[in-house]
Structures are given as C-alpha cells and as structure tokens.
Amino acid sequence: MPGFALPLLLATFVAPEYVAVPSDADRPYICNLSVVRGLSAGRHLLVREGPTSGRPVIARLKEGARVYICNEGGGWYGIAFSTSDKSCGDQAFRGLDVRKAARCQSGWVRDKWVEVLTG
Predict the structure, then answer these.
(1) pLDDT band for position 58 (50/70/90)?
(2) pTM of this prediction?
(3) Can you list the domains of the chain with their CATH numbers?
(4) For residues 83 and 105, is the Cβ–Cβ distance under 8 A?
C-alpha cells in the first residue's frame, strides 16, 4: 500500500533514542473551554467559593458566559473565568493551561448549567 511506505521507512531509520516524547510531567493540564447554558431569561449562574450550595456566592454569570473547567466532583465544576479585574487572557478554543488559571477569577458552579466545548 503506497500510504504506508513513508511511515514504515521512517520507523525503520529513526532510532528510538533520537525521538523526543514528552512525559506526562511536561504536558500541561488544560482546563476545558465551556459555556454557561440552560438558564431561564434574566437568571444568572451563581459562582460559589466552594462545591456546596452553602458556600458564599462570589460571582454571577450570564447565559453564554465563557468559562474553563479545571476541576470537577460531586455535581460541581471548579471553573476559571475572566472578570473586569482578572483576565484569563486570549486562550480561544484551545482551553486554558492550568498554570495560567491563577490570573483568572475562580469558583464552583453546578455542572448542569455548563456545556463543555473542548476536551
């Protein structure tokens, strides 16, 4: 088969010690790009200090707000998001490198109101 000749040829002549494969420690954890969805008109998603409804509300997000999911558990997402004071920067549709999430606002939201776009 002609489509397999080049990869087979490369595999034959490239010694394993010359191929750099990054370890898991070298790969950054990427927070998934997501969006707030399913809210009724005029309602906001409450962002809490921790993953329970008893924790203080620290922000409110509108329908369509872009967030990054960096953690999850028990029906809650740990998110990072931009505010007027803290910007996550221009991460577009690639997600957010968790090492850069410290510059964003962060909190917890119920998972049923967030649609994951990447990951």
Answers:
(1) very high
(2) 0.74
(3) 27-116 (2.30.30.40)
(4) yes
